[in-house]
Amino acid sequence: MRRHRPQRNWGARIHETSVYGIDAVVLENATLRVTVLAGKGTDVVECNYKPLDLDFAPLSPGGIRTPRNEAGDPQAAFMESYPGGWQEVLPNGGAPSAHAGASYGQHGEISLVAWDHWIERDDPDGVTVAFEIALRTVPLRLTKRLSLDRTTPTLRFAETLVNESDLEVEAMWGHHIAFGPPFLSGETRVDAPVELGRASSIDYLEGLDSYTIRDDRIGLRVSWDARTMPYLWIWQEHGGTTAYPWWGRLRTVGLEPFSSRPTDGLAEAVRNGTALRLAPREARDFDLTATVLEGTHATDHR
């Protein structure tokens, strides 16, 4: 954190802070306020559309907590510290798994640990923050940049995943983007073949590179590079899990671009041929944008 950099509360701006004891970065412009937990996986725990005070990355019933796993359960670390909002997942998607001598917990490993971060652009017309992590279980380094301009309600992700070894590396890579109340309601719909309202389910689509989730007044358009993430995971939880970990309290729809399927871990993705493969020293770029659409624009994308 640079304590003596120029500060302002207008135009595009950045605040370095902490949220419930976890290092965080807030990117803000005239229309969006985005809070990112640099100290926990770069979770996006707020994407607030300011004109309506509407959050597209709402918190879970458990809220923001520092990860811990006293029992050593490979599933519990993610579940018990799940804050809601949006996570990035690498190199294991879904259930605990083991591959190439390494063992992975639920959605391990990058969603549970602190990342480095630095400010690359900081002026009233635009801000960019870079986040970076070198994984422990595989020789991968991920750098991602989040950007806002001065006024547009668009959050931009620009990422580069690098294999730092002389061997091929297999992984699962995805964005665990979840929506909830108050935006998520009986009026919410998605411009994709998705049946909303299931008690508890996980489904998969292929061939999409965008979707809009909306009601009659507001929507969010998410677009991404489907060459790297050709699958969309659809996770729904509407009180259907009445025991651990949700106890009937969670209401959410996850619409999650992923490199691989299903949500059974890396070993299964390798077995079925959907695992992401990075050649020795390969660098793979990936882009994702999330844009708020208000009024008639929310219903233009069908």
Structure characterization notes:
The chain contains 2 helices and 22 strands. It is mainly beta. It has a single domain (13-299), classed as Distorted Sandwich (Beta-galactosidase, Chain A, domain 5), CATH 2.70.98.10. It has an 8-stranded antiparallel sheet with strand order 9-10-11-12-22-18-17-15, with no helix packed on it. Strands 1-2-3-4-5 form a 5-stranded antiparallel sheet, with no helix packed on it. The protein has a 5-stranded antiparallel sheet with strand order 6-14-20-19-16, with no helix packed on it. The longest helix is centred in the C-terminal third of the chain and has 7 residues, at 266-272. It is globular, with a radius of gyration of 18 Å.
Walk me through the topology:
Blueprint: E1 13-19, E2 22-28, E3 32-37, E4 43-49, E5 54-55, H1 76-80, E6 86-89, E7 97-99, E8 102-104, E9 116-123, E10 126-134, E11 140-149, E12 154-163, E13 169-171, E14 174-179, E15 189-190, E16 200-206, E17 210-214, E18 218-224, E19 231-238, E20 251-258, H2 266-272, E21 276-278, E22 283-294
Antiparallel strand pairs: 1-2, 2-3, 3-4, 4-5, 6-14, 7-8, 9-10, 10-11, 11-12, 12-22, 13-21, 14-20, 15-17, 16-19, 17-18, 18-22, 19-20
Mean pLDDT: 93
- Secondary-structure element series: EEEEEHEEEEEEEEEEEEEEEHEE
Estimated share of beta-strand residues: over 45%
Residue share in helices?
Answer: under 10%
Low-confidence stretches: none
Q: What distance separates the N and C termini? A: 43 Å
Q: What composes the largest sheet?
A: 8 strands, antiparallel
By DSSP (H or I, 4+ residues per run), the number of helices equals 2
According to CATH, what is the topology?
Beta-galactosidase, Chain A, domain 5
Spatial order of the strands in the main sheet? 9-10-11-12-22-18-17-15
